[in-house]
Amino acid sequence: MSTQAVPAAPAQPSASAASPGHNAPARKRSVWGLVAWVVGLLFVFPALWMVFLSFHSESDAASNPPKFTAPLTLAGYRDFFNSGQSPWPSLANSATASVCSTVLVLLLAIPAAYALSIRPVKKWTDVMFFFLSTKMLPAVAGLLPIYLIAKNAHLLDNVWLLVVIYASMNLPIAVWMMRSFLAEVPVEMLEAAAIDGARLPTIMTRIIAPVAMPGIAATSLICFIFSWNELLFAKVLTAVVAQTSPVFLTGFITSQGLFLAKVCAAATIISLPVLVAGFAAQDKLVQGLSLGAVK
Amino acid sequence: MAARQRLRAGVGLAALAALTVTMCGCAGAGGLGGGKDSINVLMVNNPQMIDIQKLTADNFTRQTGIKVNYTVLPENDVRDKISQELSSQAGIYDISTISNYEVPFYAKAGWLAPLSNYVARDSGFDQNDIFPGMTKSLTASDGKLYAEPFYGESSFLMYRKDVFAAKGLTMPARPTWPQVAALAAKVDNAQPGLRGICLRGEVGWGQIFAPLTTVVNTFGGTWFDKNWQPQVDSPPFTEATSFYVNLVRQHGEAGAPQAGFTECLNNMEQGKVAMWYDATSAAGSLEGTGSPVAGKMGYVAAPVVKTKTSGWLYAWSWAIEHASKKQDAAWKFISWASSKQYEELVGSKIGWTSVPAGKRLSTYDNPQYVKASEAFAGPTRAAILAADPENPGVQPRPVPGIQFMDFPEFSALATTVSQYVSTAIAGQISVQKALQDGQKVATRATKTYRSK
Question: Is the ipTM beyond the 0.95 threshold?
Answer without folding.
Answer: no
